Amino acid sequence: MKKILLLSLVLALYFPLGSFAQIASWDFTGQSMLATSTATTFDSGLTSAPILTRGSTAVASAGNNSFRTVGFQNNGISASNTDYFQVVINVPAGKKISLTNLNALFAGTATYYANTGVSSQYSYSLDGSNFILIGSPVNITSASVAPNASPTVDLSGVAALQNVQTGTITLRYYASGQTATGGWGFNSPASGRIGFSIGGSVTTAGTVDTTPPANSSGFPKTTSITSSTVNLVTNINEVGTTYFVLIPATGTAPTTSAQIRAGRDGNNVAAFKSGSINNAINTDVNTTIAGLNISTAYRIYVVSEDAAIPPNVQTTFATINFSTLGN
Predict the structure, then answer these.
(1) Distance between CA 254 and CA 250 in Å, rounded?
(2) Boundaries of domain holding 77
(3) Per residue in 223-234, pLDDT tens?
């Protein structure tokens, strides 16, 4: 029994959890000061090996068997930072990708990960522009630098990273340590040790949904108008989400679906009222918009999307004119 427990401990330290189902992995043995690093192994369902690149302020720095930089500094983590490592996964035609975890081994300047260690966090994007931070930052201390594995980052609960059938998945890694100049990055402490890996699967997608939802006849519409409220009723032909903005009739109308989804008017200013509605298939769903002014003309702009990943958004939006009642 002791031998089995010892073996389990060694495996847990040597092989990060979830490393056995990998989309791509990197062995950094022999690498130092490289601007990019191509995955050592990758899923046969991908059309090419993913490549690690760098943000503009995460330039390569020296470090044996590492993909490293002194650019992370100690100025905190933000999705808008330019000090990051990045990998883009292209979704092949006819395939779908689901991500389950991220594992890494880290090394760097001792003073950089001293005391409370290095704050580490990943983000993702499905359009290459808008990045969402994953979970909360994790501190990597002297107890969890190479050759020990850092904590596994679980992606299985990130819905946007499951069953992605088109486009790209972009992942970024950020860090913030104890000094402004210390080196930090992925590391392979011995030949064959995987310094960074992306867990998940690449499988056959079947039919890809590329069609936005359609409004049922007569929808969207307003009902039950009072001096201060109105009901907005929607009905679309598939499961999805409807977004709306309400502004005075004299306001600046939104010009794009993206503005409506973001709750903005045509000047990209927060609309007077905005929100979203969860739609079931071919079902009337209504929401009450309150806090309106008496005897006032308004317009509601409405657009819907389906539940595909990424969603298919209607190419045009609906406009509804109405006025609240007087006393």
Answers:
(1) 12
(2) 2-204
(3) 999 999 999 999
